[in-house]
Design brief:
four-stranded antiparallel β-sheet; N-terminal domain of MutM-like DNA repair proteins; single chain; 271 residues; binds zinc ion; 10 strands; Helicase, Ruva Protein, domain 3; alpha+beta
Length: 271
């Protein structure tokens, strides 16, 4: 499932590749992914020009001049691909945006994803993106201070739940949370109120370093970028390494159930 590193990488590639291109037509194979009827979707996108592409958490925002914003969420995963003039579109695509220079941009979701469009002036009323929390890689937004404030507000929840709630911090899911908690030495079921000052500092650092490192490597090795190339991040510390030795103490890594999700922990380092 794509999380902040994969989505950020994709948005940066889209920004470089698609900026300045004008939309000529839109193909909708799967209208269930849309937030408006296909006719309105096409009308809002027609003849607009890509002004820039950004991301927040697991959502990609494509700013279209003069009036619209395309919002993309890959859900459990999928392919979002760029096609040069003359390249055929993949047979399994659920939607595609065709540019006037013959290039195209297609979307295919493995399970379910969203391709939404809103008038840019009404972006704040798009409930799914308006509720997104802090961007953990934004230096101005995600500081020790804002993180402390968040933990204080959520002190009754377990720490893993706090980290994974997209309304708190946008972009951490069940993949990257594993090594973040391990690096900070925290068991996923620790009550947030009981996390000490030094553990909070370690957790803040772990969120930043784990996500930054994965982003630098272009995201997960089993996710694809805009050019259908895999990411280079594959060396988890404890994530998905059940039974293998902990990289710090050698204790076999355990897979445990934590609410509705699975967690991978070192029972010695994460008491
Ligand atoms: Zn250990």
């Amino acid at each position: 499932m794509p999380e902040l590193p994969e989505v950020t990488n994709l948005a940066r590639q889209m920004d470089r590749e698609l900026r300045g291109r004008r939309i000529a037509d839109v193909e909708i194979v799967q209208p269930k992914c849309l937030n408006v009827p296909p006719e309105e979707f096409k009308r809002l996108l027609a003849s607009t020009v890509v002004n820039g592409v950004t991301s927040r958490g697991k959502w990609i925002f494509m700013d279209l001049e003069p009036r619209a914003t395309l919002l993309l969420n890959l859900g459990m995963g999928g392919e979002v691909l760029f096609h040069r003039n003359g390249d055929p579109l993949p047979g399994n695509h659920q939607s595609a945006i065709l540019f006037d220079d013959g290039s195209a941009f297609s979307q295919h979701f493995w399970w379910f994803g969203y391709v939404h469009v809103v008038k840019t002036a009404e972006l704040a009323s798009h409930a799914m993106t308006a509720a997104l929390g802090l961007d953990p890689l934004d230096d101005g937004e995600f500081t020790r201070g804002t993180f402390e404030k968040l933990l204080e507000q959520k002190k009754r929840s377990t720490i893993k739940t706090v980290l994974m709630d997209q309304k708190n911090i946008a972009g951490i899911g069940n993949v990257y949370v594993q090594d973040i908690l391990f690096t900070a030495g925290l068991h996923p079921l620790r009550k947030t109120a009981d996390v000490t000052v030094s553990e909070r500092a370690a957790l803040y650092g772990a969120i930043r370093s784990q996500l930054r490192n994965a982003l630098e490597l272009g995201g997960l090795a089993y996710e694809k970028d805009l050019y259908n190339r895999p990411g280079r991040f594959k060396d988890f510390l404890v994530g998905y390494r059940e039974g293998k030795p902990c990289p710090v103490c050698g204790t076999p890594i355990q897979k445990i159930r934590t609410g509705s999700t699975a967690s991978f922990i070192c029972p010695h380092c994460q008491e």
